[in-house]
Amino acid sequence: MSGPAGGGNLVLIVGSGLANASSVTFGGTPASILFQDPIGLLIIVTAPAHAAGTVPVVVTNAGGTSAPAMYTYLAPVGPVVLSLLPTSGPTTGGTPFTIVGSNLAGASVTFNGVAATGVVVDPTGTIVTGVTPAGTAGNVPVVVTTPAGSATVAGGFTYVAPPPPVAVSLVPVTGPTTGGTPFVLVGSNLAGASVTFNGVAATGVVVDPSGTIVTGVTPAGTAGNVPVVVTTPAGSATVAGGFTYVAAPPVAVSLLPTSGSSAGGTLFTITGSNLAGASVTFNGVAATGVVVDPSGTIVTGVTPAGTVGNVPVVVTTPGGSTTVAGGFNYV
């Protein structure tokens, strides 16, 4: 008779005079009696665990102790690995794998020393499935470990770095300095991308499932051309041509008052939009004390001296110039 050193297997003992056995021992270790034949010919027990080797099995009942029968405990057999599929996957991990072999019961699997997740061994102990952990690019050892030992998978597993992003086009290529311009960036390998305009993150960035289209909204920026950079876990790419911020042209809605002394010194207020950084001229002569409110919608100042009559009033910002309808009347 023989069985695994871990015990737990059923053993049939055949003899005579075995009725009403009080104990069955394997090398002195009691076994669990599951069944006894009333006429004393059969006993079924669960073998206890024991170190590998041959030990006596002894049955004891009211009539005494039986002559020993010999039972051999077998050392556990280490795992054998025949194949691993697939043999490569991304450095981000998450690749489902299958290992085929034998003696794989109770197996765990590591990739370069890092435990795989979701490891399941089929009831026959011949197939192990799981999911690779993240790893660095290159070939790494894969080790299967069971209570009986370890085995290294021939050929290991090769982690492949994802390709870096490629940016092909950006539409539109211009927009206001205030930001808020929806954009579409087309390329490849864009999964997980973020986008910056002159180092400032775009908002509302979404990548399509194919990893070829990124949409988002530009942040605010200063007038001029700025670099646009797409970054993924695999690296960064700069969009050719960048993005040009254009200051929005000023809009003047009203001027109050619309007339004043030709000696100048009249306090005025211009209302409109996009007035940040504005200067104001009356017939080409600069107003003094010009102040723009933080919202860029109100400009105040003082008129210069001028000649009697109606003169043009021009508001100028980095975004351009606009003439106030109706001008200003010097009296």
UniProtKB/TrEMBL annotation:
The keyword Transferase does not apply. GO terms for biological process: carbohydrate metabolic process. GO terms for molecular function: semaphorin receptor activity. Transmembrane segments: none annotated. CDD domains: IPT_PCSR. Pfam families: TIG. Residues 78-160, 164-246, 249-331 form the IPT/TIG domain. Gene3D superfamilies: Immunoglobulins (2.60.40.10). The keyword DNA damage does not apply. Keywords: Receptor. InterPro entries: Ig-like_fold, Ig_E-set, IPT_dom, Plexin. This is Cell surface receptor IPT/TIG domain-containing protein.
